[in-house]
């Protein structure tokens, strides 16, 4: 389960930021995770519940925003694609698509006390 390692890194970053700002407590962690990353939201939430014990984030809330996958065709502009039926070929003209969103994995913000 790579979600455990991901969450461990997120908590380390959050705790480092809390220390840097002299905060003793993390109230909320807001994440943006792209659909193309293949992260299982439930597994990430489970990992958070396990790893936050006895940390500054022990009582924190976790908010996860899933960013849908989007692609752009050089000829047709934005193209809607599904992660379940994903190809890199434009369904309209056959050109090669470029992914424009859905690869994000970032901490959008931390609420520190």
What is the fold's blueprint, element by element?
Layout: H1 2-20, E1 26-34, H2 41-51, E2 61-67, E3 70-73, E4 77-80, E5 98-101, E6 105-112
Parallel strand pairs: 1-2
Antiparallel strand pairs: 1-6, 3-4, 3-5
Helix pairs in contact: 1-2
Which outline best applies?
Answer: elongated
Structural class estimated from helices and strands: alpha+beta
Q: Class of the domain at 2-69 and 102-112 in CATH?
A: Alpha Beta
Distance between the termini: 31 Å
pLDDT averaged over residues? 92
By oligomeric state, this entry counts as single chain
State the major sheet.
Answer: 3 strands, mixed
Radius of gyration: 18 Å
CATH architecture of the domain at 2-69 and 102-112: 2-Layer Sandwich
Any low-confidence stretches, pLDDT <50, length ≥5? none
Helix content bin: 25-40%
The strand line-up of the biggest sheet is: 2-1-6
**How many helix segments?**
2
CATH topology of the domain at 2-69 and 102-112: hypothetical protein PF0899 fold
**Portion in beta strands:** 25-35%
Report the order of strands and helices: HEHEEEEE
* Number of E-type strands: 6
Task: Provide the descriptors you would attach to this structure in a database record.
alpha+beta, three-stranded mixed beta sheet, three-stranded antiparallel beta sheet, single chain, hypothetical protein PF0899 fold, 113 residues
